Structures are given as C-alpha cells and as structure tokens.
C-alpha cells in the first residue's frame, strides 16, 4: 500500500485490516504492520524571522546536518590517494534537545544568530523503520490464507475492496507470491498464443498447406473446454500444475490430429482412396 503521506499511511492500513477481518479469507501477521513507537523531533523554521535576520533556510539545514550529523566539505590528495574531509559536531555536546541553543549561525551582516531563536521543536512518534516501494512510502501487509481458500480468491477479494471503498486512499501493489501469481497468469497467456502461432507455422510448412494445420488445431479449443470443465467440476483452480497439464493435453490432441491428417494424405496420394472412409479407419486405429 502506497498512500501519499504518513497520516494516510496509518489510516489506510487500519481501514484495510478492519474491512478484511470481517471475512475469513486471511489471517494477518501483526508483525508486518508498522507502529509509531520511535520518538523523533520535528524541526520547524520561522522563515520570516530568519529572513529578517539575514539567515537562509538552506543555512539552517546545513548547520543542523553538520552539527548533528556530518557533511563532506571537500577532499584532499596525499601521495596519490584522495581522502574526504568530513565536518561534524561532537556527539557529547548534543545529548539533549536544549543543547541546540549552543549552535550559532552567521547572518549576512556577519552577526552570530542563535539557532534556537529561528526554529521550534516538536516531539512526535514515528515508525522505527520507514519502508519505500517504487519510491513511495509504503506498508507491506502480509497474511496467511485461511483453510479452503485459494490465493486467487483472496486477491480478487482484496481488489474488490480496493475498488469499492472510496475512503481508502493510496496505491496498491503486490509482492512475493501475489506478484508471481499475476506475472505468471499474464505470461501464460502470451506463451499459449506464441505456442499456437509457432505450431501453426510448423504444421503449415510440414503439410505445405494452411488448411491442414487449421483442421488439426481445431482440437485445441475442445481440449481447453474439457480441461476447464474438469477443473470446474472438481473445484480445482487454474494453477501452474493445471497449466502444465493443459499443455500436455493439447500436445496429445494435436499429435492424434497430425497422424490422422498425415496418413490420410499418404493413402489418398498413393492409392486414391476416399477421404471419409480413410479418416474413420484411422480414427479407429488411433483410438485403439
């Protein structure tokens, strides 16, 4: 989930959990939810006062960065090696928020201005770890499927919730098994289309005709309908294993069609026999 700011981040995750817990699809992992338990100070700059005293906002930022963290100011070369020059304050001098009063900035007029006269501190709680996904603040919500439900059913349910609940703001994306599920479903569609195209072209080159491959591949839709009916009647889902089985079923169906067409053409060319009786005889041999 990728809301636009921290407030929406917390609101979105709370709304999603409250809605989805009404159904028995999922068992949420509470450890995956980020709580605001880490203290921090929010620094606000009085821009008008800083401008009156001749101090820019960037000067305030660089000063805080240098004294409370560190900043690379330049480099120097010694015996062919380049070294960074790091400028930072002493940690022992800044153990308490009130120690900021010991920091001064130089204004444009050359006077020293105390930093605490330009800023205000506000203590607040935030998450100890800030996750990002696709360059946006995000929370990863993980859950275990309840017994009797599939991943496809759970994802369809979550997509319906995201589409119907207008109060839930933010973008939704998938990771892990959910992402692989969608990518695999999309990839299998292209694989089937590519396989049918390549098979048709190979058969057309083999029989030197565009009609015979079309006749052979008429068995493919029948095989697909039979496979889908079998999955539906048994309550199974279209997963990677069933997709592999469908590919094998299509191959077996096409193999019988190729043999029938090949032998029919040979008998017709060599002995001039009629097509319909020959096909009936070959079908009996193939089935036997």
From TrEMBL:
The name this protein goes by in its record: Acriflavin resistance protein
Segments crossing the lipid bilayer: 187-207, 214-234, 240-261
Molecular function GO labels: xenobiotic transmembrane transporter activity
CC per GO annotation: plasma membrane
PANTHER family in UniProt: BLL4319 PROTEIN, PTHR32063
UniProt keyword Cell membrane present: no
InterPro entries reported in the protein's UniProt record: AcrB_DN_DC_subdom (IPR027463), Acrflvin-R (IPR001036)
Keyword terms of this UniProt record: Membrane, Transmembrane, Transmembrane helix
Entry keyword annotation includes Transmembrane: yes
Species: marine sediment metagenome
